[in-house]
Amino acid sequence: MNSTRTSRPGPSRSRRVALLATGATALAALLAPNASATATTTDAPTPSAAATGPKEGARSSTAAHPGPVLDVQQAARAQVDECFTSIGGPSPEPKDGACPSGSQPKINGAYVWSAARSGDYAYFGTLSNVTCNASSTYSGDTTPYLVKNADVCEFGKGASAGELGEIYGDARTPQVLRVNADTQKVEDLTPASDPLLKRTVGLRGAAAHEDVVFLFGQLVNEGQTVGQGLSMFAFEGSTGKFLGSKAYTDLVSARGGVVAADGNLYLAGRAPGVNGGRVLRWTGDKEAPFSFEVVAQLANDPGYLTTFKDRLVASGWGTQVPGERGAVSGGPAKVWMSPPIPSAGLTFDGAAAWQPIFSWDEYDPDPVLSKGVAWGALTEWRGELYVGSYNQAAVGAVQTMWQAYGQPKGDVLRKRDMLSASRPTTVFRISDPGTERQRTTLLYGEEKLPVYNPNTKRWTAKANLLGQKPKFGPSGFNGNVGNAYAWTFTVFQDRLYMATFDSTGLITPGAHFTAVNNGLSRTTKRSLESVVGPSLKATLGGGDVWRMDDPARPAVPETLDGFGNRSQHGVRVFLPFEDKGLLYAGMASSWNLRATAKDRGGWELNRLVRGEGRGRLDASLPPDARDAARRAGVSAPQP
């Protein structure tokens, strides 16, 4: 929040800080893995859209630069696809993006949720109305609500309720988009008539190999929640031809795949219930694409999957069962590494050799909270492994604690627990992973963390179990408690880019869910919606991307405001085209009633190319945000 005073009455400073914590640590639940997934703003400069990539044959410079080094061009964005009149009312079709009198434009498309490259083409899958889907999945609440000029959820009165039930009444058929990286032509390849796609709540994962592109979706039937099955769609990469679809019941989610050193495509997927997950090797081809062999069974759900030299590495999660408000089972989360991959590929015989190389409870001193935090994005960069954390949906830790110890009564104690249990994005570097020489370094995190004592019912600060001070800064990169999730990491032109999910811009549209899921009062809900939400969106809103140029130096912000759109709460997927000098950034936004010129809602697809470099971004926090971070045990950013 700004320290500037206005004539408008508001809560006291202590109440504003508490409300800040409530919003920034709870709203990420609206983008949760199991869920599918009018503020005043300040002006922010928009980067130039005229830059081009480096000349052919030129070597990318990796010299450290204090400010942004990428320029942004918009490749595509979600369109106005409905006109909203009232909850349960008629939904006229827009004409050229305009809606008739008595209605307002609505943008259902919320996420670019998955991405894969095949030759010169980029393939993307989308997700709609994530706040609505997540809210009903987590809390079970299907009460329709409207936040004026921000977001609407209709549930049982929504357009999809007849087919999918009230939980997913706001779901819409996801899109499959293909972009030519040379011409930037965008094609919609959505197989809209496919019956499986009509029961798919978002396309969460993608992978490509040998001219076949896969997109994976979360499958539901009427009256069910996600976690019931996985839908898979295949395309011919070079032509975009639809090859067919298949439903799986032994998997319920898959994020993506990687081609390893042996030349095989591997996927990671979640098993039903709380039974961990599996790693699969593709054994099919273009004529019979849906053929896979299980090569590993892991105790954790495997989230992200990457390669490290001749091995695979997976970030582990606990499981958030729908209906349990985000509490986590199956933790603590571990980072898993495969044995060296033989030339013939991994087989299940080698599954026992998969080993955990690092566990969240080796860092977090709280015995219960350490089971409620997951691992997020991870990647190899310059011979070392970089791993980020994920406080699952920003409610995983606190709801896991409440499940163990019981929920306190009243807003004051509940907000205290929500803030103290917060574990913003934490980043580790693992050198020589999986060997006797392995070293784990805390890059962004906390020397001390809040730990709950169930006997005294109080919180105290205890040293992290690594006994380390963070090398570069506090969790959240700059102490922003809203940075709950290391959403996607990628290496582009020998720089490491780390994108977070920043919940500070979602507090207004998500206030209803926050109050219902955490048992908060209507007064708190109204404050989140009309006071805290607008203030935080104006100051901290918009997804963050942090860039490392040199392993020995701290990261610098590439953007702190969603590349100039504060309604975009993060880069959900990166897709690099190194040979073409460009990087795609698939964005996420949940403001479905904000079809405006500035800070527009709905997903965006940005094309990032190397620019001239601009001045350093101010990464300091407003006073109230800094105070909330301090109260959470998150230190203020260093100069």
Structure description:
It is globular and about 65 Å long. The protein has 639 residues and is an alpha+beta fold. Strand 26 and strand 27 (439-444) form a beta hairpin. The strands form eleven sheets. A four-stranded antiparallel β-sheet has the order 1-36-35-34, with no helix packed on it. The chain contains nine helices and 36 strands.
Q: What is the global morphology?
A: globular
Please state the structural category: alpha+beta
CA-to-CA gap between the ends? 20 Å
Which percent bin holds the helix content? 10-25%
* Integer average pLDDT: 88
Per-chain topology:
Blueprint: H1 13-26, E1 70-77, E2 82-84, E3 104-106, E4 109-118, E5 121-128, H2 130-139, E6 145-147, E7 151-153, H3 161-164, E8 176-180, E9 186-188, E10 200-209, E11 212-219, E12 229-236, E13 242-248, E14 253-259, E15 265-270, E16 277-282, E17 292-298, E18 301-308, E19 311-317, E20 319-320, E21 328-329, E22 334-337, E23 355-359, E24 374-381, E25 384-390, H4 396-405, H5 411-420, E26 427-431, E27 439-444, E28 448-453, E29 458-463, H6 476-479, E30 483-492, E31 495-502, H7 507-518, H8 522-539, E32 545-548, E33 556-559, E34 570-577, E35 582-588, E36 604-610, H9 623-631
Antiparallel strand pairs: 1-36, 2-3, 4-5, 5-8, 6-7, 8-9, 10-11, 11-12, 12-13, 14-15, 15-16, 16-17, 18-19, 19-22, 20-21, 22-23, 24-25, 25-26, 26-27, 28-29, 30-31, 31-32, 32-33, 34-35, 35-36
